[in-house]
Amino acid sequence: MPHLSEQDFGRPLRAPAPRARLQPAAIDAERSHVLVVTGPSGVGKGTLIRALQERFPSLELSVSATTREPRSGEVDGRDYWFLSDPEFDSRIEQGAFLEHAVYAGHRYGTLRSEVERAESADGSPTGPSGLMLEIEVEGARQVRAAMPEAIQVFIAPPSVESLRERLLARGSDSGEQIESRLAVARGELGAQREFAHVIVNDRLERAAEELAGLVASIWGSSKGVQS
How far is C-alpha 3 from the chain's CA centre? Predict the structure, then answer.
């Protein structure tokens, strides 16, 4: 199993979804500008997104905002939009966030400007064909409420034990942090039925191919995505 990228945050669940969808919803490709990729921390969302971008360079990844300090090598506007707490509060008051939540004492959120940028470029030969959001389940629920037309994909591990092994192999968390992430993950895994599309990341190559096939079927003809 190739090394799976670390998700920086795994925000805890706070509220049930407005309604569980047991059957895939019809896709309005003309209205869908956003692909939400969600699932437990450590499941490999970042790795799958990078594989998708290699195949479809016209897809862009939304840059999240956060109040935590930049880590070594991180660049403002590329890795995150790094905001102070007062700046974050101001953006909330302005209604600038599509979704936001608190995790480990810091706040994270998706700015509406990221989505508007993708929408304004839609249909341009040189613009992005879609925008991808890599967020956790609670954030995905907020996006669903604000943008029901967004395409949402849940990435699941083959088992909780396999997820534990991936978190251990990552080597970035203490044993206590891993158990905390797994506790959140168990609740998130119970939310799979809310999502029209679920991909089990048992083998990276197979999961990447399934995700690419989904994107091609949704956006290929209407947005000029080329394989």
Answer: 18
